[in-house]
Write a structure and sequence with these properties.
Elements (H helix, E strand, L loop, with lengths): L22 H66 L3 H11 L6 E11 L2 E11 L4 H9 L4 E10 L8 E9 L11 H5 L9 H21 L1
Length: about 220
């Protein structure tokens, strides 16, 4: 073809043909590699940005969950303080009423401190700090309060010489068994494993003494 270089140089048959120019090939190859690298870099940047956004979202969710957990922990702690009172099944107003009904008259005793709460091995407990007119009032009060659900024990008494009027101070501890109408009856002794004080037998001894005024009244009526 006209203008085309001959395939064979007949004038110089021993001369090597001129090497082909491969610059365009290398340029194209480099451009392709650069494009691939740019695409990979762009994908990595895009993926990292997505991951950063996801991390930010998760951090916000974590902060919100931690705030909820703090509020929930406070509520759980408050509920944990109230749960023992429900588990004890103690009607404290009824206990106050019983103590008020069985307590000695005001001229013999005066309650100064009343502490009530749950006990680890019992339904509940009451601590009474009172002053009386003498050491004889405490045993009577303990016998009046003691029953199948109540164990009453005193820590002794001490006279306060500085006090005027009622000056004999006593401290009474009352253990209360929980009351569950659907469960078999459990006494305070069964709940705590403690033995009631020896004063619990005193009412049986005191019973015959109550019959004496009745006989005396009968004799008086007959005469």
């Amino acid at each position: 073809a006209a203008g085309a270089a001959p395939g064979i140089d007949f004038l110089h048959p021993r001369r090597r043909p001129a090497p082909q120019d491969r610059r365009r090939f290398y340029i194209a190859l480099g451009a392709t590699a650069a494009a691939i690298l740019l695409l990979c870099a762009g994908y990595l940047v895009f993926d990292l940005r997505q991951m950063d956004a996801r991390i930010t979202t998760l951090q916000r969710e974590k902060t919100a969950i931690l705030e909820k957990n703090k509020k929930g922990k406070t509520i759980r702690e408050q509920a944990a303080k109230v749960d023992p009172f429900f588990a004890a099944d103690i009607v404290w107003l009824d206990e106050l009423r019983v103590i008020s009904e069985k307590a000695p008259p005001p001229e013999k005793a005066r309650l100064e401190k009343f502490l009530a709460g749950t006990r680890p091995k019992a339904g509940g407990g009451i601590l009474l700090d009172a002053v009386t007119e003498g050491p004889d009032v405490s045993p009577e009060f303990e016998r009046a309060l003691r029953d199948e659900r109540h164990i009453v024990s005193g820590s002794g008494g001490k006279r306060d010489e500085k006090a005027v009027g009622l000056n004999y101070r006593i401290l009474e501890d009352i253990v209360i068994a929980p009351h569950d109408p659907l469960a078999p009856a459990r006494t305070a002794k069964q709940v705590t494993g403690a033995k009631p004080p020896a004063e619990s037998k005193a009412p049986a001894k005191a019973a015959p003494a109550k019959a004496v005024p009745a006989k005396a009244a009968a004799k008086g009526g007959g005469s």
